[in-house]
What we know:
homodimer, ten-stranded mixed β-sheet, 37% helix
Amino acid sequence: MKDCVNIGLLGVGTVGSGVLHVLEGNAAEIAKKAGCKIEIKKILVRNKQKAAQLGKKYAVTDNFEDIVNDPDIDIIVELIGREHPAKEYIASALEHGKNVVTANKDVLAKYGKELFPLAETHNVDFMFEGAVGGGIPIIRPLKSCLAANRITSVMGIVNGTTNYMLTKMLHDSMDYDDVLREAQEKGYAESDPTADVGGLDAARKLVILASIAFNTRISLDDVMVSGIETLKLCDIDYAKELGYTIKLLAVAKHDDEKGITVCVRPTMLPTSHPLAGVNDVYNAVFVEGDALGQAMFMGRGAGSLPTASAVCGDIIDVARNMVHKSTGRINCTCFDEKKLCRLEDMLSPFYIRLHAEDRPGVLAAIAAAFAAQNVGIKTLIQKQSVGDKVAELVLITYHVSELAMQLAVQTLKGLPVVKDVCSVIHVEDDSVE
Amino acid sequence: MKDCVNIGLLGVGTVGSGVLHVLEGNAAEIAKKAGCKIEIKKILVRNKQKAAQLGKKYAVTDNFEDIVNDPDIDIIVELIGREHPAKEYIASALEHGKNVVTANKDVLAKYGKELFPLAETHNVDFMFEGAVGGGIPIIRPLKSCLAANRITSVMGIVNGTTNYMLTKMLHDSMDYDDVLREAQEKGYAESDPTADVGGLDAARKLVILASIAFNTRISLDDVMVSGIETLKLCDIDYAKELGYTIKLLAVAKHDDEKGITVCVRPTMLPTSHPLAGVNDVYNAVFVEGDALGQAMFMGRGAGSLPTASAVCGDIIDVARNMVHKSTGRINCTCFDEKKLCRLEDMLSPFYIRLHAEDRPGVLAAIAAAFAAQNVGIKTLIQKQSVGDKVAELVLITYHVSELAMQLAVQTLKGLPVVKDVCSVIHVEDDSVE
């Protein structure tokens, strides 16, 4: 029986240093749980200063080949982040028969299809609990605990930066620009925040979650993505008035007949929904399955130690597999090929805010434009005047198709009486029938 | 490689019939995930009518020996419930080298210590995800995903009956007796509700959670248990006024110096705490770990299909282990022996409601009784008069020890001016320093 599992660690940034901290601090307990000692054999470091620092305690190298060709190394833990060279390192590690643990959502979302077969061929583990939701257990629960379910939907708040920003906008009535500046000052948002606020980060995580939940390979191109950049404070306030909270929601749904929908977009949730109360940098994933019913997993979705918690949990799991000679025990679960849902089959209510002339007959013209696309209006509120003879209208529709909504908005924009269609926001609310 | 895993199912009550439903309905997907077919080989049924019904589709028997001695049966799924003969069946199954899946919290809480070594000796799996929190993944996350953490606390709403009742009391201002009657009519409470309302059911689940979280064997005797039977509507209302919600909370905490605390009791939680918003029959478990930070798992804590979701997840996991010849991969994790915390070291704020004479000097006498035990008062509210010259007082203390509180209450009860100490309720609130 193996008495020590050796790790080659790639990268000691935020998460990597968290992993060192956890593996050191909790070494004795971890060894008991894993069934063997777990040791850092070698670390890949590019930064010379950091290398000098770590070199007092660990063997360091700036050459990946030193790690992948070391026959004593059992697990390569990739925490460099971004696509390259992380993807090439992971592929090479798998090809060399090394188990791989990573938290790299960028690589998984884009190259999962290429990498999983390598893990399978070489009968090694390829684990990534830390890639979605930081420390929150979600990948393993989906692959194991909930494996008996047909999952019908996965909805997540999976980007802490934007959730922090939306919470601030709601609670402190701050504008988007101000809140972004504050988030950057506090280190919650990067200096280039595009991937977070634009929804790409959430979309990558959704691709991973949906592929596992529905057992079919979802690619980034399949996801309809829109971010929070154009979200106005007044929409957040109107939403509140109407009983909703706006979240940047990553939603994956599966319907046996219609297929799969995968979207990341600002979404209005009833304030009573468990996800509506998930605030600040917290993340949460809400899952529905045919047997399970509804369940929610909540916690810190990022950060050094929470993500290290997930990465080290994976390391322990690989070590257990090594002890029991069962690596490769759970591999890729994309054994199906499910179709995507068409725009005309994606049904939901919508919130619309528009500016129109404030005179008799205008409402009739607007209502006719909606009616022409069979869009039913559930709630319509005429808000304050926003200029000379211009009124702000806010309305919520019944369930209509994405396509019908797009066509209705086009028609509205063409109406002379309509000055502007300011906002169209998806509503997640089954009670609006 | 094994191409079919055979199950012997003991009991087809609520959960057992759910398991049949899930294994049948999702058979194709389950086989793909498990890596082999999963079939029900034989069912133990005592009820002759049910046996006749099932007999058209499955092989049934009323003799456990037929199952445990069947060499083709790989997994025995125990869903009879209660202690006996379930415990003897599980022990016999393990001794016969069968893997066991159960949702039986009664047996696990009381006989875990006896049963886990049997599983280890025979190198088989013994899984029980359904024993706590129904369909909510919590056992496997604690044993795997969070394994790298030192868990510092686990707090759960793990009894749906009492959570339903408390929610009704809070939202509909119903008295305990009325709400119990309604819960019984709706089938949410049993005709003998003692184990639920008295906290024993929650205590059993806490024993299981705490043993795993702290890697030390906790027994039922270690748990301080009090139920909701004596909880008054007015305490729920006062709590709300003070910014708290009362939940029947199962709390396990570990402090390196002081040791382990395990309690089930009505507890006041700040309304902002994620557990405070978990209502109706929903369950939730809130976990804190040194790396993880805080995380919460929420979902349906009972019922046929949610519990079957967990049981079938375990079955799939055992099947994967059989395919990879790695049964016994994760066994008992109670490798430590941690001490229990003493009453004088258990610190928390308390809520107290008492009736006292309504005249000058009384408050001074009461304050002196608290001061004698070094109990600091944070909030004191004199409420309405409750009889001839008798006033109702409600107060919240700073953090004091369980022992000091008990002594202070004894002193109070001995004061001539104090008519009654009506309620003493534990408060879970770190902001009351």
